[in-house]
């Protein structure tokens, strides 16, 4: 009887010990703190992805993190004139496999956490949106980034990681999370969605001089909610996301209604991913999509209606 109890105890310890390594779920808002990451670094399924450019990654990063620079998850399709489009399934499969990401991975994306503009958290949100589009679910963003990690006096290294290649396979694609220009065209006629323009005011008004555009301005009916509205400086000196209550107040003040599906857009769907992330995960609205291609593509569509608050000569 005593031996049976010992065996049972050993089994329970082994079972729950092993389970704790794999049974890790991300918070519902898909935001995690440095201490959350640090306390789960032993988990074999946890993959920390640093989305900064290689030079920034080499200067110091979280131990064990892999570098997937934000430009690598985009792909320009010259034939259909969509710049900064989501990378193809083949390209993303290769990226995930080389990074050691499996179909069971828990992924935490991190950046510097020190820049509100021109990119802010859009590197991380675009990386998460891309993963979501290709079927991944267990993903989160390190709120505060590396700046908060260092403020919390957690370890940093300059040694690059060498992950073991995985056999990641795309099992599902969430096509509805990506809006096409055909859906935007439909919106122009029946206004069946709420369209949010995530660009800074200058771009929205057509005051920019961005050479990627054929025309400047915004899509008629779009509501301007710049992606930077959803970030704030903490007392400790790093940028973090606003609270869900603050995010809702920002959107309501701008005139956003939650009764219809929402499409976010910007120049290439990059900044727009930040608005998408906030609306989907902080406010838990499921029917939201990112217009991948956005203004770079829309400005090239013949006869597409445009609101230009600053008269340009085309």
If you had to describe this structure to a student in words, what would you say it looks like?
The chain has 314 residues and is α/β, with parallel strands linked by helices. The chain folds into two domains: 132 residues, Rhodanese-like domain (Oxidized Rhodanese, domain 1), CATH 3.40.250; 124 residues, Rhodanese-like domain (Oxidized Rhodanese, domain 1). It has eleven helices and 14 strands. The strands form four sheets. Strands 1-7-6-2-3 form a five-stranded parallel beta sheet. Strands 8-14-13-9-10 form a five-stranded parallel beta sheet. A two-stranded antiparallel ribbon has the order 4-5. Helix 8 links the parallel strand 9 and strand 10. Helix 5 crosses helix 10. It is globular. The N terminus is likely disordered.
The termini sit apart by 89 Å
What's the overall average pLDDT, rounded? Answer: 89
Low-confidence region ranges: 2-22
Structural class: alpha/beta
CATH class annotation of the largest domain: Alpha Beta
SSE ordering: HEHEHEEEHEHEHEHEHEEEHEHEH
What's the alpha carbon Rg, rounded to whole Å?
21 Å
CATH architecture level-2 label of the largest domain = 3-Layer(aba) Sandwich
Largest sheet: 5 strands, parallel
Number of domains: 2
Please count the beta strands (DSSP E, at least 2 residues each). Answer: 14
Strand order of the largest sheet: 1-7-6-2-3
Which range does the strand content fall in?
Answer: 15-25%
SS element count, helices: 11
* CATH superfamily grouping of the largest domain: Rhodanese-like domain
Helix content: 25-40%
CATH fold name of the largest domain, please?
Answer: Oxidized Rhodanese, domain 1
Name the shape in a single word: globular
